[in-house]
Amino acid sequence: MVFRQLLATLLFLGTFTLVSCENHPYREGERLYKANCANCHMDSGEGLGALIPPLAGADYLRLNREKLPCVLRYGLQDTIVVNGKIYAETMPGATKLSEIHITNILNYVNTAWGNANEPYRLDEVRMLLENCAE
Amino acid sequence: MKNVCFVFFVLLGGLTACFQAPEKRVLPILGERDISPAGDTIYREIPDFAFIDQDSQLVTNATFDDKVYVVDFFFIHCPTICPRVKKNGLRIYEKYKDDTRVVLLSHSIDTKNDTVAALRRHAEKLGIETQRWHLVTGEKDAIYGIADDYFSVATENPDAPGGFDHSGRLILVDKKRRVRSFCDGTDAKDVDRFMKDIDLLLEEQFRQ
Fold first, then answer.
1. What are the residues whose beta carbons fall under 8 Å from the beta carbon of B141, sequence distance 6 or more?
2. What is the pLDDT of residue B45?
3. Which of B74, B114, B125, B189 to mutate to test the interface with A (most CBs of A within 10 A)?
4. Which of A8, A101, A125, B38 is 20 to 30 A removed from B188 (C-alpha atoms)?
């Protein structure tokens, strides 16, 4: 009887862990996103009007995969097009973030809110950051 | 039999309590107050001001005659709380867009960069109408001074992100220039509560 209860508890906990892992594969990335990006891009990645582009469902992420680590670190001064709309505001860079931080954030952003872009590896991000066009 | 009576009265008491109208909440008048020599209470009022909005129009106290208005302080290139406050400001804007009794007033604290042209561009990107939401600039000292009158914080600080310290407060002012409520403009739930306060104030000040 005790064994059964234990088994049931374990099963329950197991399912719970599985579900929560499925929901948040990049917890650290989420934490860093909230601290560094969410003030402008908002908690659900929806952006703000014609001022701040969305990240949720943004084609820009897919089309500019190799640029994204540099965008995070150095920001953006150029006009960009996201889902057919023009955005011309300056994006400040997050110069204090490490390569690991940037990888975590990118992986969160690229898989959150229905985004399904390929995750980044740390060595890949490191390599891309070395070649930022300043 | 005694017991039955007792139960009856308890029930009756409960019923009457239900029928009594709950006392209506009244928004407090915030800030220090004085007593006049005649013994009347003098409440603190927002002093005279004159700023310029995104359409180069003069915005003064008269702009808000017979209206209640919602105030905040921001700057366009604000890397921290401003977008969140603006997002919540937009919720208020949308809710009262067709209600001319409510107007929004945002003061830029970056008087150097946020010119009328910059404010106009910002307003266009937010998709807002000037008559419903004024984005204003003006004399630096006047803007920073009036922030105190609204119990908000605005100071220059080279060490702060973007160069300015300011609170993300939204402040509600009544028809008589008195501050009646405020909220944390970065907190959607607090803004929900604040919008209920706006409704309450409208009811109080526009009673037929």
1. none
2. 92
3. B125
4. A101
| CA-based nearest residue in chain B for residue A91 | B79
Smallest CA-to-CA distance from A42 within B128, B91, B110, B94 is with B91
Per the CB < 8 A criterion, the answer to whether A118 and A110 are in contact is yes
**CATH of segment(s) B41-205:** 3.40.30.10
pLDDT at residue A19 greater than cutoff 70: no
Of all residues in chain A, the percent with pLDDT exceeding 70 is: 87
What is the count of residue pairs from A and B with beta carbons less than 8 Å apart? 30
The model's confidence at residue A105, banded by pLDDT at 50, 70 and 90, is very high
DSSP 3-state assignment of B116? helix
A48 touches chain B (CB under 8 A): yes
Do the Cβ atoms of B126 and B166 come closer than 8 Å?
Answer: no
Inter-chain residue contact A48 with B86, CB threshold 8 Å: yes
What are the sequence ranges of the domains in chain A?
A: 28-130
A28-56 as b/e, with b when 16 or more CB fall inside 10 Å?
ebbebbeebbbbbbbeebebbbbbbbbbb
| Cβ <8 Å between A49 and B126 | yes
Look at B87 and A51 and tell me if their CB atoms are within 8 Å. Answer: no
- Per-residue pLDDT band at B194 (split at 50, 70, 90): very high
To test the contact with chain B by mutation, choose from A37, A39, A79 the residue with the greatest count of B C-beta atoms within 10 A, namely: A39
Q: Do B125 and A49 touch (CB under 8 A)?
A: yes
What is the interface pTM, i.e. ipTM, of the complex? 0.72
Taking the domain A28-130, which CATH number applies? 1.10.760.10
Contact B83 A42 (CB under 8 A): yes
What are the tokens at A24? Answer: 């948040």
The minimal CB distance from B125 to the residues A39, A50, A90 is found for: A50
